[in-house]
Amino acid sequence: MEDEVVALIKSGMKLKCGHCGQGKLFRSYLKFHDNCPHCRQDLTVADTADGPAFFVGFFTMIVFAPIILVLVQSVETVFAKITAFIVGILVCAVVCLVLLPPVKAILLNLQINYDSGEGTTEK
């Protein structure tokens, strides 16, 4: 089972289908195909919703907030403080944009594999 999860994560990091490992998941930056182009796996059975954005945003802010704070406090002039802040925010935004597709693909692969669905209150 652990090897299966590792395989799903690896295929997600490559932006590939977790079922066949070959088909591309995305038709554009963050839009999934309806079906895997290679194995025809239905990709509409799972919805990642805001999960990837939350995890990526939370992780990057935990890492970058202290770094940006130290950078801003370590320089003396106002211009340097503003520049350090803007550069820190831009780097943080780029990291978020780079991490978002793989995290979204990993979560989709795991959801499809474990047949997870929307939570309900019915038993």
Structure description:
The protein starts with a helix and ends in a 10-residue tail after the last helix. The chain is 59% helix and 0% strand. The model has no long low-confidence stretch (mean pLDDT 92). The protein is elongated. With 123 residues, the chain is mostly helical. The longest helix has 36 residues, at 78-113. It has one domain. The chain has helices spanning 2-13, 51-74, 78-113. The chain contains three helices and no strands.
List keywords for this structure.
3 helices, membrane, mainly alpha, about 60% helix, about 120 residues
* Quaternary structure classification: single chain
Given helix and strand content, the structural type is: mainly alpha
> How would the global form be characterised?
elongated
Largest sheet: none
Q: What is the percentage of strand-forming residues?
A: under 5%
- Discrete helix count: 3
Measure the end-to-end span.
27 Å
Parts with pLDDT < 50 across at least 5 consecutive residues: none
Task: Report the average pLDDT across residues.
Answer: 92
Number of strands: 0
Number of domains: 1
Succession of helices and strands:
HHH
Helix content: 55-70%
Q: Specify Rg, calculated over alpha carbons.
A: 19 Å
Keywords: Membrane, Transmembrane, Transmembrane helix
Organism: Parasphingorhabdus cellanae
Transmembrane segments: 53-72, 79-100
InterPro entries: DUF983
Task: Please outline what is shown here.
The protein is mainly alpha-helical and 123 residues long. Helix content is 59%, strand content 0%. α2 packs antiparallel against α3.
